[in-house]
Design a protein that fits this description.
Layout lengths: L14 E4 L5 H14 L11 H13 L4 E6 L2 E10 L9 E8 L8 H16 L4 E8 L5 H11 L3 E12 L2 E11 L1
Parallel strand pairs: 4-5
Antiparallel strand pairs: 1-2, 2-3, 3-4, 5-7, 6-7
Length: 181
């Protein structure tokens, strides 16, 4: 990924901190990678950097946590919680998003970001349920790796929708996992 060089394939996180608007260019590069190269998200076109900046401001101004992982001064991943749906009855439920630089996967970065979001939500007291909603390709082992990642943190699978989305000429499933905060 252009401009996204990590200095070693075994990326270790130096710190987890609250994201700032100055992190948006690196967050945007990671975001674009997942939209353009993977089935992790059903979007076909990445948000512009400005749209991503507006999304960041909307999430943070609504009181939701937004964190970045830093490795050697660079963003190696990001995670945030956001409203599950815009209906009033869901006000105590949030959805989780975690994205890592491709070289940071398997390094523990995702687990540290996940725990930071969970801790922030628990401290805030408003959110009672956190959902991890993931797009999965049933033909790849990635689905089980993601399920195990969330299960280790206490999430339980509560739904599996089969062949509900399409990207890169393949039908994809969506898995719902839930954690009581």
């Amino acid at each position: 990924m252009k401009g996204m060089q990590m200095h070693s394939p075994n990326v270790e996180v130096d710190s987890i901190r609250g994201a700032t608007s100055s992190d948006i260019p690196e967050i945007h590069q990671i975001h674009a990678y997942y939209i353009e190269k993977t089935v992790t998200n059903f979007a076909y076109v990445p948000l512009s950097a400005e749209d991503l900046r507006m999304s960041f401001y909307n999430i943070v101004s609504a009181g939701f946590p937004y964190f970045v992982a830093i490795h050697e001064g660079r963003v190696s991943g990001y995670a945030y919680a956001h409203p599950f749906r815009q209906l009033a009855g869901y006000v105590h439920t949030a959805e989780l998003s975690i994205f890592l630089h491709p070289e940071a996967t398997g390094s523990g970065t995702g687990s540290r970001l996940l725990q930071a979001v969970i801790d922030a939500l628990a401290e805030g007291g408003k959110i009672k349920q956190l959902l991890a909603i993931m797009t999965i390709n049933p033909k790849e082992n990635e689905a089980e790796r993601l399920r195990h990642f969330y299960a280790k943190a206490g999430f339980v699978e509560v739904g599996h929708l089969r062949a509900v989305g399409r990207k890169f000429d393949q039908w994809l499933d969506t898995r719902y996992m839930q954690l009581a905060i």
